[in-house]
Design brief:
Elements (H helix, E strand, L loop, with lengths): L1 H31 L8 H25 L2 H24 L18 H24 L5 H27 L36 H11 L5
Helix pairs in contact: 1-2, 1-3, 1-5, 3-4
Length: about 220
């Protein structure tokens, strides 16, 4: 009975941190730019799930065997770090525009940096306050509830992105590759010449193709 209670107490720290950092964050990054990758969601999802499982087991064992008086603070630190990453990644991510070699005006980013510092300070203050308020109660249960809500939101976000893009995470995309077969052969019709413009931003190229429609499609 005591072991089962200890398992429930360490779940908030063992689940939320590796789920966000090792599973949700890289998967969300993949889904935001699937057209730039030659591999499918099924290829990367297995890797991300494996990383999450390893991270979960490692943190779970650490929290399970440390003294109770120390465990609460470790869980709190993991929760604060995770909250900071989650807020920054979802709401404070900076858009630098086209990275075309032009100098970036870093002074314009001063306000965002100040907001980032304020967010970190608020996360620390709120979490410390919660530890003080609930130090005589089951604080880990509160963190577990918050963690499950956030994980549910993250899972819903990824599933929605897959549904909108028509991605099946269980189907492996067939691999394609360039070969030298027929390299210097031309057909009588339907030959296509491809000019590879090095260092040209992909977004600029796509805008050009949509504007001028050189292929007549």
């Amino acid at each position: 009975m005591r072991a089962r209670k200890n398992i429930k107490r360490v779940l908030s720290g063992a689940l939320f941190f590796p789920f966000t950092i090792l599973l949700f964050a890289p998967l969300d990054n993949y889904l935001l730019s699937t057209e730039t990758y030659i591999f499918s969601a099924a290829n990367v999802l297995s890797v991300f799930v494996l990383l999450f499982a390893v991270g979960f087991v490692a943190i779970f064992l650490l929290l399970f065997f440390v003294p109770v008086s120390v465990r609460k603070y470790i869980v709190t630190v993991l929760f604060v770090i995770n909250a900071i990453f989650y807020i920054h990644g979802n709401f404070l991510d900076n858009n630098y525009g086209f990275l075309n070699g032009e100098a970036i005006d870093w002074s314009a980013d001063l306000a965002r940096r100040n907001v980032s510092i304020a967010v970190i300070a608020v996360c620390l203050i709120v979490t410390v306050a919660l530890v003080i308020i609930f130090r005589k109660k089951d604080f880990e249960k509160l963190l577990l509830l918050i963690a499950l809500i956030c994980m549910g939101m993250q899972t819903t976000s990824c599933v929605a992105q897959m549904a909108v893009q028509g991605i099946n995470p269980f189907v492996i995309k067939p691999r394609t590759a360039f070969t030298k077969d027929g390299m210097f052969q031309l057909s009588k019709t339907d030959n296509t010449l491809i000019f590879v413009v090095d260092t040209l931003d992909t977004d600029i190229m796509n805008e050009y193709l949509q504007t001028y429609d050189p292929l007549g499609t």
